[in-house]
Design goal:
Elements: H1 5-10, E1 26-28, H2 49-64, E2 69-75, E3 80-87, E4 94-111, E5 114-127, E6 136-143
Parallel strand pairs: 1-2
Antiparallel strand pairs: 2-4, 3-4, 4-5, 5-6
């Protein structure tokens, strides 16, 4: 079979748009959160901090600096937990009403071609845990350094 360049050039061309896939960040140290895995679902963010914390940090980086890219993230210590309880009417039992969980992380971020290292507290606050309706989860992105 003979190759004919003129026929090839005359063929209609289809432009294929390929999605740009961002490189996944290097994620480490989240085994320090193993002790909270039984309750982490109460945050409503998923079952695995190594998945949702980096995603939430990347979302906040993009919100503050469009085009920022999380290159690496490392959990540096066990999450800090704070909880509030209330007395259940009629039983006098303590029930969980709110839960705060703060993940201390170090992140390497590329912003406009520059690489920056950040120390961040990624904090989650789950409220109204004692109610079937109206549960609320808020996040705080706290840059410490």
């Amino acid at each position: 079979m003979k190759f004919n360049a003129k026929k090839l050039l005359a063929l209609p061309m289809a432009i294929v748009a390929l999605p740009i896939v961002a490189q996944q960040p290097d994620i480490s140290g989240f085994d320090c959160a193993d002790e909270v895995l039984e309750i982490v679902h109460l945050l409503g963010r998923g079952e695995t901090p190594a998945q949702f914390v980096p995603a939430d940090v990347q979302t906040e980086l993009n919100r503050q600096h469009q085009g920022s890219e999380l290159k690496s993230i490392r959990c540096t210590d066990a999450p800090e937990l704070k909880a509030s309880t209330a007395v259940e009417e009629g039983t006098e039992k303590q029930i969980l009403t709110s839960l705060s969980m703060t993940f201390p992380v170090e992140a390497t971020v590329s912003i406009n071609g520059q690489t920056v290292s950040l120390k961040i507290d990624q904090q989650y606050l789950a409220e109204n845990l004692d109610q079937a309706e109206g549960r609320k989860v808020t996040q705080k992105f706290i840059v410490k350094q």
